[in-house]
Amino acid sequence: MSEASNTNGRSELFRKEGLLRFLLGLIVTVAGIVTAYHATIYGLKADIAAKADVAIVSTIDNRLIHIEAILTERVATKAELQQVRDELHRQLLTIEAKLQMLP
After folding, report:
1. Which of 35, 64, 76, 99 could pair with 80 in a Cys bridge, judged by C-beta atoms 3.0 to 4.6 Å apart?
2. How far is CA 39 from the centre of its chain?
């Protein structure tokens, strides 16, 4: 009986060892799959963010070019503004002089 129980104990030990190896292998496999999943997702997020940054910069650049074109077409230059200011100042001086002549 001793030999039968010894054999039985060995097979039970092999079963436990096999089960532990299987569980360890399963845990390592699951950890590898999770790691690969996260690496793929974060890689895709980084690619999408880079493309979005390029698109945003391009959109802002186009808007600035459009605003610059509008300003160039519709807004007076500094010299033109100074000329208008000087002309307005002369007209105000003329009005003031006329008002001073009134009784």
Report:
1. 76
2. 19
Is position 53 within any domain? yes
Tokens 């230059």 correspond to 77
Q: What phi and psi, each to the nearest 5 degrees, are found at residue 77?
A: -80, 170
User: Does residue 97 belong to any structural domain of this protein?
Assistant: no
Tokens describing residue 95 = 């009005």
Specify the residue for token string 């997702």: 41
- Radius of gyration of the chain from its Cα atoms, rounded to whole angstroms: 43
Is 85 contained in some domain?
no
Quote the domain boundaries for residue 50. 2-75
Number of domains in the chain: 1
Q: Which whole number is the average pLDDT over 65-90?
A: 82
Question: What does the pLDDT average to over 42-59?
Answer: 80
pTM of the model: 0.41
Using alpha carbons, select from 61, 92, 87, 63 the residue that is nearest to residue 76.
Answer: 87
DSSP state of 86: H
